[in-house]
Design brief:
GO terms for molecular function: transmembrane transporter activity. This protein has 452 residues and is mainly α. It is built from 21 helices and no strands. The longest helix has 33 residues.
């Protein structure tokens, strides 16, 4: 208790430094974090498309096609199951020893794993060792991604001014869109210029094997950005505190529960429109799978504009109002989405994906890094934000493709069970948004009021 009182006195009486803690490196931190988001989502969406279109045929060939598809999506979910553990481990390091160390390590691991996936032998070559190795790599990648996402969000937000956190934080969504654009674009080009037999025989590996290029660029950028000053000023106290995870679970349980709730509907919408929709269009409706990939690519390009727009809106009008718009809108739009997609018209399919992602999903995703970071104090922010991100992702988007395929089968090919499931998860996020404090334009810590 005395330590907390001492910290409070230091923070409220701290004199301003010569430079504001949150302005000099805001752009660099945003770019550094955005690069990680680009690669993380490049990898996960690349794997998601490959899971929907390729992996069930080359890694699970011994299974019935429907069961093989479920098994392929199960390996996709495995990476998400590992994410909370990655967030816990990385959060301890980030809150005690620095944010940048975690970001560099996570980027290296993600790059190595993605490259190895592209080099894996198939089931016909090595038998059961192929899917086993695939699952192991997804577990490792999940650990690294769990470290990356929350760490990058905190790093970006802590370097930003109080009235610009929504805008700078939204670049994580833009980075995700760029990663999705690269991944969907890569598969779109493959499907147009390479025959299906050639893709199945090995051309699918190409997008995975070029990942080291993005990693090298990201490492160069991240090495040039220092730790946020708000973290450095609390580092002395952080090193003398009890275990960070114990502090988080004992003193900040409510914030953690709210953060998880805020994530659930957003990640559900993300993976519904970017992964399951490709499967639904290509496999269920029998359209060429490039229609779904092209729709996601267009939406990803538009997110470079829509995400910053929603971020700025949240800075000016508050986080809650438009977050609720996104959560409720996502739940209500799911029925019109299926009506649009079932027409089998490429234009209407694209319209459905764009509305779902750029209008409703981005209204939640763009202000999310700022809102989650604002819920936690600096000394547990890395752990709190990371666990909110990853536990919410597991409960929402991580299992969505698997659950949606199962519900589609249970509903005899009709999507009404998916609609109910989507709506139920949206209720959780709406509840969390109503209970979470409105934190827009407030200082992350009392000491920041001297420098904002």
């Amino acid at each position: 208790m005395r330590r907390r009182e001492t910290l409070a006195r230091r923070m409220t009486t701290a004199k301003p430094s010569g430079k504001p803690a949150n302005h000099p490196y805001a752009r660099r931190a945003a770019v550094a974090s955005m690069v990680g988001a680009v690669f993380e989502w490049y990898d996960f969406y690349l794997y998601g498309i490959a899971t929907a279109l390729v992996f069930n045929k080359i890694f699970f060939t011994a299974l019935d096609p429907a069961v093989g598809q479920l098994a392929a999506f199960a390996t996709y979910a495995v990476g998400f199951v590992a994410r909370p553990l990655g967030a816990v481990l990385a959060g301890q390091i980030a809150d005690r020893h620095g944010r940048r160390r975690v970001l560099i390590l996570s980027l290296v691991i993600m790059g190595v794993v993605t490259t190895l996936v592209g080099a894996l032998p198939t089931y016909r070559q090595v038998g059961v060792a192929a899917p086993t190795a695939l699952v192991l790599l997804r577990l490792i990648q999940g650990l690294a991604a769990g470290a990356e996402q929350g760490g990058a969000a905190v790093f970006m937000v802590e370097h930003s001014g109080a009235r610009q956190r929504g805008m700078w934080g939204s670049l994580a969504t833009s980075g995700a869109g760029l990663g999705l654009l690269f991944a969907s674009g890569a598969f779109f080009l493959l499907q147009h210029f390479v025959s299906t037999p050639d893709i199945m025989s090995g051309a699918w590996r190409i997008p995975f094997l070029v990942s080291p290029v993005l990693i090298i660029i990201g490492l160069i950028i991240r090495a040039k950005v220092p730790e946020p000053e708000v973290f450095e000023r609390t580092q002395e106290v952080t090193t003398t505190r009890p275990h960070v995870l114990v502090d988080l679970l004992h003193n900040h349980r409510k914030q953690l529960a709210l953060g998880i709730g805020l994530r659930i509907s957003q990640t559900t919408a993300s993976y519904f429109y970017t992964v399951f929709s490709v499967y639904y269009v290509g496999v269920v409706l029998g359209r060429t799978s490039s229609v779904g990939s092209a729709s996601v690519a267009v939406s990803s390009a538009l997110s470079l504009v829509s995400a910053p727009f929603w971020g700025v809106v949240s800075d000016r009008a508050g986080r809650r109002r438009w977050y609720l718009f996104g959560a409720i809108g996502s739940a209500l739009f799911i029925v019109p989405f299926f009506l649009l997609v079932d027409t089998r018209s490429p234009v209407l399919i694209g319209l459905g994906v764009v509305c779902g992602l750029n209008v409703f999903h981005d209204a939640m995703s763009a202000p999310q890094p700022a809102w989650l970071s604002e819920l936690f104090p600096t000394v547990v922010r890395g752990s709190g934000v990371g666990m909110s991100y990853q536990i919410g992702a597991v409960l929402g988007g991580g299992i969505l493709p698997l659950v949606a395929v199962f519900l589609l089968m249970a509903g005899s090919g009709r999507p009404w069970l998916i609609v109910v499931y989507f709506g139920a998860l949206s209720v959780l996020t709406v509840t969390a948004a109503c209970l979470a404090p409105e934190t827009g334009a407030q200082a992350l810590e009392p000491l920041e009021q001297a420098t904002v």
